[in-house]
Design a protein that fits this description.
About 35% of the residues lie in helices and about 25% in strands. It contains 10 helices and 14 strands. The protein binds flavin-adenine dinucleotide (FAD).
């Protein structure tokens, strides 16, 4: 439980963090809340030569609305997402989900940016950014770019981030009339990580027909994915309980699912259907 030796440096701005990442190369890692990186270092699953502490960059803790976007700084803690009135007003599903991450210590230290960059297959936010069609603003030595959540997760603990890039902000849509979103998870009984978590965002027209459906699934497979088959079945249909139950009878294939001491692939596939049905039902009620 003792990490390898490492050098510690502190960044005071995003620009500073990017230049330190560039200077220290691929063996450097950004340190935010430390709730995933430090345990991994203690288990020697990760052995960065340099830690670049970004937790001092106040600009990255901000939460605000910019036009029709809810912008959350990468260093916003789970607790601040949970309690923010701006988040509750504009995209309340995020504060509901944040309230069920880990325990109080994890929520007080862990950050939304660290959670996404780590890309743990059992983390909650990956399902939410996929369902909510979020965008990640990142900054590296070649400048700023925006990555759609759909393009961000590339594998088990793997993302589209380059080694010199950091996440600065995450942009979510502000949810207006006719659109509803919900997140349902089956938590691990000890850690509260998602054995399976499903986020859904639905838009309905005045007659109750679904004009858009997005579903993000976490915990089930090596990385979070969208249940596009279910989205396609629902889009264009009048929605009710039966339509949702029929569409969610099968969400993903057990052959693609994780297997561990907590849940078999078959159980995970079953949980995907149950959590998807619950999330979609709640999203439908909220969209009405
Ligand atoms: C006991 C326990 C229970 C937990 N339960 C849950 C749970 O129920 N649900 C859940 O979703 N998560 C859970 N977590 C994980 C927790 O949410 C972590 O805080 C989060 O995954 C990582 O955020 P962090 O700020 O601690 O990142 P760190 O540990 O500091 O960093 C994690 C990784 O992200 C990189 N990184 C951090 N910030 C940035 C950035 N801005 N740009 C680029 N790279 C960055 C780091 O270099 C590192 O590779 C749990 C953790 C613990 C210890």
């Amino acid at each position: 439980m003792i990490p390898n030796d490492f050098q510690y440096v502190r960044a005071n701005s995003v620009k500073d963090a990017v230049s330190l990442l560039d200077k220290h190369g691929e063996n450097a890692k950004v340190l935010a809340g430390g709730h995933s990186l430090i345990p991994a270092m203690k288990l020697r699953l990760n052995a960065p030569a340099t830690l670049i502490d970004v937790s001092n960059i106040g600009d990255l803790t901000k939460i605000g609305v910019n036009g029709n976007k809810l912008q959350i700084g990468a260093l916003a803690t789970h607790r601040s997402v949970e309690t923010s009135d701006v988040v509750k007003k504009n995209c309340s599903v995020l504060s509901e989900a944040a309230a069920h991450i880990g325990d109080a210590q994890v929520r007080n230290r862990g950050t939304i940016g660290g959670n996404l960059a780590h890309a743990d297959p059992a983390s909650d936010y990956p399902a939410l950014v996929l369902a909510l069609d979020a965008e990640l603003e990142v900054e590296g030595k070649s400048g700023k770019r925006t990555i759609a959540a759909d393009d961000f997760f590339e594998g088990l603990f793997e993302t589209a981030l380059e080694s010199d890039e950091i996440i600065a902000n995450i942009n979510f849509p502000t949810l207006g009339k006719g659109t509803g979103a919900a997140y349902e998870k089956f938590p691990h009984p000890a850690s509260r990580f998602a054995v399976v978590g499903v986020a859904a965002m639905l838009t309905l027209d005045k007659k109750g027909t679904c004009t858009s459906a997005r579903i993000g699934v976490t915990g089930a497979a090596p990385w979070a994915f969208r249940a596009t088959d279910v989205e396609d079945v629902l889009t264009g249909k009048p929605l009710d309980e039966k339509a949702i139950s029929d569409a969610t009878a099968k969400v993903g294939d057990p052959a693609d699912m994780l297997s561990d001491a907590t849940a078999s692939p078959e159980f995970r596939a079953h949980l995907c259907s149950v959590m998807a049905r619950r999330a979609l039902m709640k999203a439908m009620e909220r969209a009405k």
